[in-house]
Input
Amino acid sequence: VANFKLVKGHTFLLQAMARIVPEFPLLKLVLVGEDEFDGALERQARELEIAGDAPLALPLVVAALGLRRSELRLRRLALRPGRRFFFDLLRQLGAQLTFEENDDSTTDVLVRSGKLKPTRIAKGRAEKLLEQVPLLAVMATQSEGEFVIRDIEVLRQGEYDYLAHLVQQLRLIEAKVGEFPEGLVFDSRVFEPLDQ
Output
C-alpha cells in the first residue's frame, strides 16, 4: 500500500488488519511511504498492536548473536508452532534466547549474544531451513569449529546458482567457506568482535 491519502481509507484498512490477523497469522500488510497525516498511520498501527512477523526479525537476531555482549528484545512476535524451528536451532547452537508468551498469543523474545557451537545441518533440518541458508551462513562464520550445511543442492538448480553466489559474497568478507555439490562448510571463527 502506498500513496497515503485520507480519502483512500487506510485507517479502515489498519482496523480490519487488527481484526483478521489473529485468524490468518501469515497475512502481511506493508506500508511504505509518507502520509499526509504526519505519521498518524504509523501511530495507529502501533496502537492496534498488530503482531510482528518472526521471519522478518531473524536477520536482527543473527546480527545480535554475532556482536559480543549484545542484547536484543523483540516484542509481540507472531511465533506459531512450526515457525519456531530456526529459534530452536539457535538454542541448540548455544544462543541465549528467552521466550515470554503474551496474553494475545504473541511472544516476546530476548536475544543475548554468546559463543555459538558448530553443527551439521542436513536432510530434514536442511529442508526446513532452505529459506534461511544465507542467515545460517552468516551464523556459521561466527561459530567456533566446523559448521556444515548439507542437502541444499536445490539452491543450485534453475537459472541461478544461489550457493555459488553466497560463497562468492562470503569470501569478499574473508569468510573461510568451502562449497561442495550439495552444500557448504565453514571453518572456525573469522571475524573479530566489534567491541574489542
Q: What stands out?
A: Strands lie at 52-53, 71-78, 96-101, 107-112, 120-121, 146-149, 177-180, 183-187. Residues 54-66 form the longest helix (13 residues). Confidence is low (pLDDT under 50) at residues 190-196. The longest strand covers residues 71-78.
